[in-house]
Amino acid sequence: MTIITRQNETADIEAIINITSQHQVERVVVGLPRSMDGSLGKQAEKVEAFVQKLSSQTKVPVEFRDERLSTVSARRLMQAAYAKKPRKKALDDAVAAAIILQGYLDEERFL
Q: Residues 55-87: pLDDT tens digits?
């Protein structure tokens, strides 16, 4: 897994396109931050706008995945491994991304 450090929209899209090209990615899975009631808030709208720009610059399909509680799951998982050590938010985010992707892959396997 590659972690892209957020810079600006143009650089971020370029980094994603470079990764998809280098690794012959067939699909990009994006976490969509829904509210607990399932509605879309401001952050989800920002993610959708970003994905729309990304999609206009690549032929690789982009799919959304509900990311509710993924960060909570990641923190609980990491608590066991790093009980007394401080963690960085980037590590929590990376583990949350892995949880989102694994859930997506598990669902695809059973379709």
A: 999 999 999 988 877 766 777 777 766 666 666
Q: Where are the domains of the chain?
A: 1-68, 69-111
CA–CA distances in Å: residue 27 to residues 14, 33, 59, 90: 16, 19, 9, 23
Please indicate, yes or no, whether the overall pTM of this predicted structure exceeds 0.85: no
Domain 1-68 falls under CATH 3.30.420.140: yes
Q: Is residue 28 within 8 Å of 20, Cβ to Cβ?
A: yes
Backbone φ and ψ of 11, nearest 5°: -65, -40
CA distance 74 to 101: 12
58 vs 35: CA distance, rounded Å:
28
